Amino acid sequence: MKNILFTLLSAILLVGCTRPKPAVDIWTAAAKGDMPHIKQNLDAGTDINARDAAGGSTPLMVAALFGQTEAAQLLIQKGAKLDARNNDGATALHLAAFFCQRETAEFLLAKGADVTAKNHRGETPLDTVAAPWSPDLQNIYVYIAGYLHITLDIQKIKNSRPDMADLLRKAG
Distance (Å, rounded) from C-alpha 140 to C-alpha 114? Predict the structure, then answer.
């Protein structure tokens, strides 16, 4: 009887001590810059360097892609790895650069992001924005936007690529 009571009491305590499941996953929160839900994930013990199932991106990479600098700051402060790579071998800096998220790229560089890191195609962050604009390049952005189910300001990206390339040249 004593053993059954102890087991039951232990089970009740363990259930009561579990952390609540976050309402929004950490990648969605990072994409939106949703600081309360990022913090909720961290408080619940979500792995800050976990990779999403689709492309292997970490929450920091997602924040970089969407230009969520404040989210990137919190994630790095809490231990996100700058040098983590997705399934394509890209780092957070690759993503911030390719999508012309200047403020986020500057922040990542200030934190020590490797401007010479190469993805699986051998491209550095600079290589992803150094090529001249072309219809084929525009089609790549449109394809990626469709694949990721996101809206991109193609004109902004087109106009920002030379500036991003200059930033990365100066950093490297």
Answer: 25
Write the CB contacts of 108 (distance below 8 Å, at least 6 apart in sequence).
64, 72, 82, 92, 93, 96
Provide the token pair at 9: 């009491």
CA 134 to chain centre: 27
Positive or negative, the Cα torsion across 80, 86, 92, 96? negative
Q: Which residue blocks in 24-149 are alpha helix, DSSP H?
A: 26-32, 35-43, 59-65, 69-77, 92-98, 102-110, 127-130, 135-148
Q: pTM of the prediction?
A: 0.86
Length of the chain: 172
Q: What is the domain partition of the chain in residue ranges?
A: 21-171
Residue 152: pLDDT over 70:
yes
- Report which secondary-structure segment, H or E, holds 160: helix 154-171
pLDDT per residue over 71-85, tens digit each? 999 999 999 999 999
The two three-digit tokens of residue 154, written as one number: 């193609």
Cα(162)–Cα(160) distance, rounded to whole angstroms? Answer: 6
CATH topology for 21-171?
Answer: 1.25.40
Tokens describing residue 107 = 């922040």
